[in-house]
Amino acid sequence: MTQTRTHSRPLAFALVALIVGVAAAIVLKPDASVKAALERPFGFVSIGDARGGGFGAADGYVGDDYLDVWADLPALNKLQPDLREAVRAAAADAAADGVELKVTSGWRSAAFQQYLLDEAVAKYGSYEEARRWVSTPTGSRHVTGEAVDIGPTDAADWTIRHGSDHGLCQVFANEMWHFELLTTPGGECPALRPDGSS
Ligand SMILES: [Zn+2]
Question: How far apart are CA 12 and CA 2, in angstroms?
Answer without folding.
Answer: 16
